[in-house]
Amino acid sequence: MSSATSERLASNVSVDRASVTAGVTRDEVIARYRDVRASAWGIDVPGVTTVLPTTDKVIALTFDACGGPHGSGYDHALVAFLREHGILATLFLNSRWIDANIRVFHELTADPLFEIANHGTSHRPLSVSGRSAYGIDGTGNTAEAFDEVTGNRDKIAAFLGHPPRFFRAGTAHCDDVAARIVVDLGERVVNFDVNGDAGATFTSDQVERAVLGARPGSIVIAHMNHPSGGTAEGMAAALPRLVDVGFRFVRLSDYIR
Predict the structure, then answer these.
(1) Calpha distance 239→223 (Å, rounded)
(2) Over the stretch 199-210, which tens digit does the pLDDT of each residue have?
(3) Fewer CB near the terminus (10 Å): N or C of the chain?
(4) Are 135 and 109 in contact (CB under 8 A)?
């Protein structure tokens, strides 16, 4: 897709930024949570969904694209495998990754197999007090948490014509107050119960073993921005085996309302 075509598509579906951030304004968020302190921090805290609300034999595959100097690659082999086998997935895309892969972003948004979700603006852990994870500083207050969510939310909405429904913070860490802010903004924090590739550091064999540990209702996290990792090969080995024992793959919105 040419840059001219990309610009035309963006203008055709552009929306007023003020109208995208539904629910509360930045000032309202600051006022609402000024005196509220977080009481929980991590991947699984109150307000965060880690499994699908079902006992059906389904699995939600979610793939993060984190962006930045070391995370703006595109795992074409992984996405090609998903497409070849008609496998549904939810893609959590960071603003920096979108900017570095705008043509691919357009292709993904047009593919009915994939649901686009919000992976933040600067890939920061979502905190109201500056908590950090894996050496990455989190947002330092409610205003920064608001900006981390809405900056990328507005960008995605400008292309989709509607805001994304789901949010995952950089590193997947957040506190319980930040999770409430995400809800106020009309999104839902979704993490996982199966770590499929450990930040794209697993070998293909490790990915295969991890994904085969999924249960009915599991949400699997893996990454689509490190093509040199073992994610694509491991998924290609594991997913057909899960299908053989009766699992099917769904998008988050198929089960989370």
Answers:
(1) 15
(2) 999 999 999 999
(3) C
(4) no
Other beta carbons less than 10 A from residue 251's beta carbon: 21
Least confident range from 19-28, 136-145, 188-197, 222-231: namely 19-28
Characterise 195 by phi-psi region: left (phi > 0), alpha (psi -120 to 50), beta (else): beta
Average predicted confidence (pLDDT) for the chain: 92
0.85 surpassed by pTM: yes
Residue environment code for 146-176, b if the CB has 16+ CB neighbours within 10 A, otherwise e: bbbbbbbbbbbbbbeeebbbbbbbbbbbbbb
pLDDT of residue 10: 33
- Residue from 137, 141, 134 nearest 177 by CA: 141
Per DSSP, the three-state class of 108 is helix
The number of distinct structural domains making up the chain is 1
Work out the average pLDDT over 35-47. 97
CATH assignment at residue 11 = 3.20.20.370
Q: Which residues contact 35 (CB under 8 A, 6 or more apart)?
A: none
Higher pLDDT, 215 or 21: 215
Residue 133 confidence (pLDDT) above 90: yes
Mean pLDDT over residues 136-162, rounded?
97
Report which secondary-structure segment, H or E, holds 28: helix 26-32
- State which residues form the domain around 12: 3-254
The pair of three-digit structure tokens given for residue 199, joined into one six-digit string? 């930040």
Cα dist from 256 to 40, 65, 126, 146, 161, whole Å: 23, 21, 21, 23, 21
The whole-angstrom separation of Cα 196 and Cα 208 is 8
Return the pLDDT at 245.
98
DSSP letter (8 states) at residue 188 = E
